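README, section 4: Worked example with a bound small molecule

Sections 1 through 3 covered apo chains. Here we extend the same pipeline to holo records, where the ligand is supplied as SMILES alongside the sequence. The molecule in this example is 2-acetamido-2-deoxy-beta-D-glucopyranose. Nothing else about the input changes; the structure line simply encodes the ligand pose together with the chain.
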Amino acid sequence: MSVLYAIVFLCLVSVSNSATLVCEDLVRPIDQLDHIFVGRWALAAGGLTTLQSAYVEKFKTRDSASIHFLNETSKMTLMRAFSFGDSCYYSNSSITVGESGFSFADYNTTVTFLYTSCPDCMLMRFDNESKDPLRLYLFSRSREMKEEEVEEFKAQAKCFNMLPPIMMDPTKELCPEHVSSDLADPNDATTDGQKA
Ligand SMILES: *[C@@H]1O[C@H](CO)[C@@H](O)[C@H](O)[C@H]1NC(C)=O
Ligand SMILES: *[C@@H]1O[C@H](CO)[C@@H](O)[C@H](O)[C@H]1NC(C)=O
Ligand SMILES: *[C@@H]1O[C@H](CO)[C@@H](O)[C@H](O)[C@H]1NC(C)=O
Ligand SMILES: *[C@@H]1O[C@H](CO)[C@@H](O)[C@H](O)[C@H]1NC(C)=O
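The generated complex, written as structure tokens:
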């Protein structure tokens, strides 16, 4: 009995090690969403499909971007902040949260949260109405990514036949947030953004 257990255990260990960069594992949705809706996330990297190559230059004009989910009594809002040079641009979108992601009230776009091995990251896949993946966005709380986490994201983008990911500069300041809730600490936000 214990020998059998040991063999099964060894097989499981070797499977989980060798499967690290297999697409089947890299593209799977997650089911634990709770932690995602808390606090602010900074954009770390983006992956775009070849059909969106016209969007690459626009994407690169952002110095930084961050998002924050706001859970008000009966509705969820996705708040976004983008910095371009010295100016900040803000936008809010109403969203409906589902089992493994959310959808926008005003666009035919659904978002699915995907697996990532980075513990303080969040990965979103944007699909159009025919459920074709359009974009991948990797967000980080600390904005400090390990080399293997970056490599994993590149592999994930490749699994979706995307262009090589665009990496954000983590030293660029984030826009100040206009959220007055205990989830957002403006002092934290400032130190985060000024980290050089
Ligand atoms: C939003 O807040 C309500 C009330 O606290 C809670 O029941 C719900 O699960 C929250 N939604 C999300 C997506 O966190
Ligand atoms: C987004 O919503 C928050 C909270 O309601 C509000 O403080 C902020 O001004 C809104 N931003 C925009 C751009 O509408
Ligand atoms: C979303 O898709 C439906 C069905 O294809 C269409 O009727 C509707 O106009 C679309 N809405 C937007 C905002 O594009
Ligand atoms: C969705 O995107 C795919 C390619 O990514 C495209 O072929 C398809 O026409 C798009 N569908 C809609 C309804 O926009």
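What to look for in the output: The first helix runs from residue 2 to 18. The pocket of 2-acetamido-2-deoxy-beta-D-glucopyranose (ligand 4) is lined by residues 49, 51, 128-130, 132, 134 (CB under 6 Å).

Section 5 describes how to batch many such records.
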